[in-house]
Amino acid sequence: MSEASTTTHPAKLFYTAKAHTTGGRDGGASRTSDGRLDVKFSLPGGPGNGTNPEQLFAVGWSGCFLSAIKHVAAKMKVRLPADPVIDVEVDLWAGDDGYSLKARLNVSLPGLDRQAAQSLLDAAHQTCPYSKATRGNINVEINLIEP
To answer: How far is CA 42 from CA 5, 21, 103, in A?
Structure first.
C-alpha cells in the first residue's frame, strides 16, 4: 500500500526532494539533484566548517512552519504582522536507547493579540508537514514569544 493511499482523501504528489549524500555527519557532504543546495558536514561543536543534520532540520522546519502560519492566517482571515520570526532550537540527545531529538519553535508575532497568535500557532502545528512528521516521535514545544 502506498503512502498516498493511506490518507482519508485522494492525495496528489506535489514535490519530491532528491539528495545524494556521502560520508555522513563527520566530514561527509550532500548535494540536491538540482544543485541548489550543496553542503559539507561536520560534527556538532567539532572542527570543520560544515553544517550538521540538526541545523538543516531546524532551517527546514522553521521555513515550513512560517509558511503554515501564513496559510492558516489567510484561511482564518487574520492579518499577520510584517515581521513574524521563528527561532528554532533542535537538541541532539544521547541516552541509553541511543540518540534522539528535542525541538523548540519560538515564534514571535509582534502586534498580534496573544489569543489570536496562539490559535494561529496551534493550527499551523496541525498543518505543517514537519510538525506532522514529528508528532508523537520527538518532544516538541511551540512557544509564543513576546517581541
So the answer is: 38, 13, 20
Which pairing describes strands 85-95 and 19-22: parallel, antiparallel, or unpaired?
A: unpaired
The CATH architecture of the domain made up of 52-147 is 2-Layer Sandwich (3.30)
Residues 6+ apart with CB under 8 A from 87: 62, 105, 106, 108, 145
pTM of the predicted model as reported, rounded to 2 decimal places: 0.88
What rounded mean pLDDT belongs to the chain?
Answer: 92
1-51 topology per CATH? N-terminal domain of TfIIb (2.20.25)
pLDDT digits (tens, 9 = 90+) for 49-92: 899 999 999 999 999 999 999 999 999 999 999 989 999 999 99
How far apart (Å, rounded) are the C-alpha atoms in residues 34 and 24? 20
- Sheet with 29-32: list strands edge to edge: 19-22, 29-32, 38-40
Q: How far apart are CA 52 and CA 43, in angstroms?
A: 6
